[in-house]
Amino acid sequence: MQFDAELLLLAMAPVFLACIGWEAWHLRRTRPGAQLYSWRDTFCNAALALMQQAADKLAWLAIIPVYAFFYDHYRVTTWPATWVSFVVLFVAQDLLYYVFHRCSHRVRWLWAAHVVHHSSERMNFSTAFRQSLMYPIAGMWLFWIPLAVLGFPPKQIVAIVLINLGFQFFVHTQAVGKLGWLEYVFNTPSIHRVHHARNEHYIDRNYAGVLVIWDRLFGSYVEEDPHNAPLYGIVEPLHTYNPLKATFHEWASMAADFVSVRGWRNKLRALFAPPAWAADYHARRAASASAGVAASGGDTGIEENHTAAFQTPRRP
């Protein structure tokens, strides 16, 4: 089956905007004191979306030929344009999205791009637009190469990725509760609220794109608990609505950590360890600095143990 996902998503743009308008009105009416929308946060999300879209347009020009190379030289079969091939492509890409998404929470290099999506302390439809222009640099496109090897043409790969991401717009809301039996098969707002939470019980869970079966199969599923409301945002809060700072803050932090730690093993950890390594490292440095100030009466010239392997266990 042939389809043009870009035209489909363009046609869906009014639907996305209508959903944002309805949700903002509905939440203001039903939860007036919650302040679940903020003009500054929403405009930041919109700016990030425009930046990401522009970067993606350029990135696809370089990436599509890579998919074409693998498709032309290494594909194991050729799929006819049928509904069967579409279903196979859809399921295969959704599984690969799960792998990419889980890696993005476990590898700091990937997290440096993905953290943008999680850095807002609000959860609403506009949060779906909060994306990073750095995904091509982080290497998101590498995860779709197996689709070319399986025999799917590059344009179909791009299309199915866009369709998957388009579906995920609808799970970024607090206005929809649990959806019964759908929770066993599909990603839903309740499931995705857990994913955006920074609560200890929820963090690094529910990586689903469209199908939640992968979370259930690979042990990363956690149900939303009505007695444990999700707290949104990241462990090290951003505290800015500047889209450029939102885009590059983790890259800058990663570069600073890479320079400051001693030993190549720690330098590699600064780039590729789970994000919890960085949070623990920063906490230890802050504690050491505070202890140094207290001990010296204000002198911050302390010697830090940069060779220690700061590894905080985190759930997979």
TrEMBL record:
Its membrane topology is listed as:
Multi-pass membrane protein
Q: Name a single GO biological process.
A: membrane lipid metabolic process
Please give the name of this protein. Answer: Fatty acid hydroxylase domain-containing protein
Q: Name one GO cellular component term.
A: membrane
Molecular-function GO term, any one? iron ion binding
Instruction: Kindly list the places in or outside the cell where this protein is found, as annotated in its UniProt entry.
Output: Endomembrane system
Region annotated Disordered sits at 294-316
Specify the Fatty acid hydroxylase domain's residue ranges.
86-220
Entry superkingdom: Bacteria
Name the species this protein comes from.
Paraburkholderia domus
